[in-house]
Amino acid sequence: MKFDVFKHQNQFVSTTEKYPALVAGYGSGKTYAFCLKALAECGRNPGKTILLAEPVYPMIRDVLQPTLEEVLHKVGFNYTYKASEYKYKINWSGGHANIIMRSAENWRRWAGLNLAGFGIDEAALLKDDSAWKMGISRLRDGNHLTGWTATTPEGFNWVYDWWKEEPKSGYELIQGRTTDNRFLPKEFVKSLYENYDERLIKAYINGEFVNLQYGQAYYMFDRRKHVKKCSYDKERDIRVAVDFNISPMCASIFQTYDDKPYIRVIDEIKLRHSTQGDLMTELLAKEVKRRYPKALYDRADVFKKNKIQPYIAYPDPAGNQRKTSAPITDHQILQKEGFKLQVKKQAPRVIDRMNAVNNAFDFMIIDPKCKGLIKDFEQVILKEGTRDLDKTNPELTHFSDGLGYAIDILYPVKRPKPQSFMA
Known about the structure:
It is a single chain. With about 425 residues, this protein is α/β, with parallel strands linked by helices. Helices cover about 30% and strands about 20% of the residues. The model is unreliable at about 300-305 (pLDDT under 50).
């Protein structure tokens, strides 16, 4: 079987090494090559089983299955799919093989499988090599036993260790760039360069291993550039970024503009838990309205048809969960107090939120009175060896977490999902 593919895709699909890894930038055709590799291994192992894994189950539905089915269609293979088992039976003239799909975070459930091959897509998103080791242990039934991954680099983690720093016999590293895909829209590539700093460009466009383990989480913050007096504009909405925490509950108050700086953080609120059983969220909402009572409240447009919403809240998505200590959720309390909510169903990945905030320092200023937020930007660090926030200090991360939810909605660092193309 011959595929017409990009150079790095062809090298990955056709390699004879037992454990190849394709490490490349966004939009470079990694998942496409990942699926082509799976079909090639099906051909080498008729009647056997290949396992394909994503870090989490939603990525199977959203990324892997659509790409595999597109590839099957383009190369002309017939297949049947059994949804209850996440199982594809791949048919060709004179033979067939099976592809099963699993979550890599549940790698312990792979015990007992007999595989001819396995692949882990976006393996660098996994915290360690446990799934990879389990996959290797299941290679016991086939003509060509092999394991592979296709991933963007995520710093000097276990993928770097296995394929770059000290590769063992049979391990091959193949790298590719976003710009290798000449079919990508120019707007896609341009958006990546606009959204990422120099280190992220090297990783997510050039497919290079770089140090993404910043000691300071918000490394783009510079007090000299970003701490400036911000005036309150009574003709603009009051926007409130909220982190729901038992004590303290923290909120940053900001306004948005059409010209730079687009985000201007004018104030912050920090409330400690009361012994009187007060609902902290209600107290927070009332405090915002006490400080800013003239924020376009009940003002109508020129035609007197639509109310202008004076208070807009960007709360932690977890605030939509009902608690035994309150009859309604934190989100409902904010709505009851007259706040319009802008919130995602699920919290964004911590790293995506941090990247969005770091990118926003290009167009954001913070008033000197926002001492808690400034302290966060200067002092919040990452857990050693990870890209997760260090939350051992109970006084840190609340303001920056809250503002991060807002910026992730207003100015997200987008991870576009372009159509995959063969060369």
